[in-house]
Amino acid sequence: MSAIPVPPFAGHDDARRFHQLLMLHLAQLKRPGETVGVHQFLLGQALAPHGPRRDPDAACAECERPYPCRTVLRVALVSRFGVGWSPPGLVRLLRDARIWGARFDDVEVGEERFAWEHEPRFTAERRIGGGWVVTSTERGSSRVRAEPADDRAMIDFIADQVREHPFPFGWRVPEELPAMVADGARAAAGWWSEHGRKPYLSQHDENGSW
Questions:
Q1: Dmax of the chain from CA atoms?
Q2: Which residue from 31, 87, 139, 191 has the highest number of Cβ atoms inside 10 Å of its Cβ?
Q3: pLDDT > 90 in the chain, percent
Q4: Beta-strand (E) ranges in 37-173?
């Protein structure tokens, strides 16, 4: 089996394989023997339209942006999809997908050094002999934020910078809001208890990556 294609892609076939393998990766973020979860199912529903168009540019069929679009790229990073990214190549993708940079022309990328604006400004420099050192600068003061030991660790650091804190996780939830969605959530859970047992889902129960 060939490796996961690394963006930028040569054409539609590589982009389509990337999308399919990402969807398979997300489907297997469970222990073998666990049932397919409703959140895995919903994530698949959300990402399915974000496949590549069948044209020479292989742009995202949903957002019409170069592939992978920002939605696909963000999910791939946060879920730790096992792509053989290079740190400089990934930073270029983040810049081009308009994920990084207060302005998207303020991301500097070289093979040994890159920098980006992310409240505050971050700079990553490759150490002699391998590894990276990441510093942040704010109001004229700099400090070391991380010292990733190799490219893989640097990719993990980058993924952590991409992660959001979507509501309600990590938020103070007004006490009146949960009751407003409780009935709908119970109804949805009842629907899923039936739908999740359908053969097209239950045949995947034994698959998993944990």
A1: 60
A2: 87
A3: 83
A4: 108-109, 113-117, 121-126, 132-138, 141-146
The CB density around residue 178, as the number of other CB atoms within 10 Å, is: 11
CA dihedral (188, 193, 196, 197) in degrees, to 10, reads -160
Q: Which residue is it, tokens 């990214």?
A: 85
How many angstroms separate the CA atoms of 148 and 122, rounded? 14
User: Does residue 124 have a pLDDT over 90?
Assistant: yes
User: What are the residues facing 134 on neighbouring strands?
Assistant: 124, 146
Nearest to 158 by CA among 109, 94, 96: 94
Tell me how far apart the alpha carbons of residues 95 and 86 are, in angstroms, rounded to a whole number. 14
DSSP string, 136-203: EEETTEEEEEE--SSHHHHHHHHHHHH----TTTTS---TTHHHHHHHHHHHHHHHHHHHTTSHHHHT
Q: Please give the share of the chain, as a percent, with pLDDT higher than 70.
A: 97
